Amino acid sequence: MYGIRGIVNALRSQLKLIAPQSGNHLEETNMSDNKGKIQLFEAKKVRSLWDEENEKWWFSVIDTIAVLTEQSDELTARKYWNKLKQRLKEEGNETVTDCHQLKMLARDGKMRLTDVADTEQMLRLIQSIPSKKAEPFKMWLAQVGSERLDEMVDPELSIDRAIQNYRQLGYSESWINQRIKSIEVRKGLTDEWDKSGVQGVQYATLTDIMSKTWSGMTTREYKQYKGLKKENLRDNMTNTELVLNMLAEVATTDISAARQPNGFSESAAVAKEGATAAKVAREQIEKSTGKSAISSLNAKKLGTCSTRQLNADDEGGGSEI
Question: Quick one: which of 74, 89, 217, 274 has the most CB atoms within 10 Å?
Fold first, then answer.
């Protein structure tokens, strides 16, 4: 509907972003143009950042150490790396000499500098770590690089990859279908706002107006309600919440296309009107079910999401706002 490349670009901005905040309006928070994400190796997280200029990945050294040494505790992995780094420095190892630091999302939800290495450096580093995971990890590094190049040639692969990632994280098929659709819907809405002359932080303000109208909470309040920090709000919504949010965005897009508002003020009025459709739907659902359509459940615990938990709002998991 909005063009496969547009959907793919939106997808790349959605999946577990860890880049510093700046001005991309495709999601409820402003994201960097750098393609930061969480890669999965045998269901273990490895933070990474795509370097557009040099066309290569940067990987978190700490996360790699944790995988190779099979450490579940980040502090232990950090101590291991500190000792290894000191030994490699004494040996004059170039991997340590050329080591870079980039900001990535830490466990406390803040962007913090951490040691990173590109694929070539990481392959050299792996040789210094005795691990039965070494060879599988080397193959995984090569696959990650190959997948990125494949996606640049065939953008539809990004969608397939997104679906695979969500499946690995334990999301249900019905949730995944809604989530992928929600990315397309969001892209259509921001395209309409572009036409209306909306700029910069106004995208976030309009999103807050819509969120407040249908859910009773701004994006920040919604995240706090779910116990989130930097995590993507939509990745922590239940099926019902995703559908209601999509209804608000679709209605706003359709009204905007029909009325062609000019500037922020007129777009704000349209946003509120469109989100009201979702508010009415939410109130009807709550009247029929006797419980809130808004859930405090989230999917961030240990980076996994239980299908049963995500859909718990249909089993009484929601609470009144």
Answer: 274
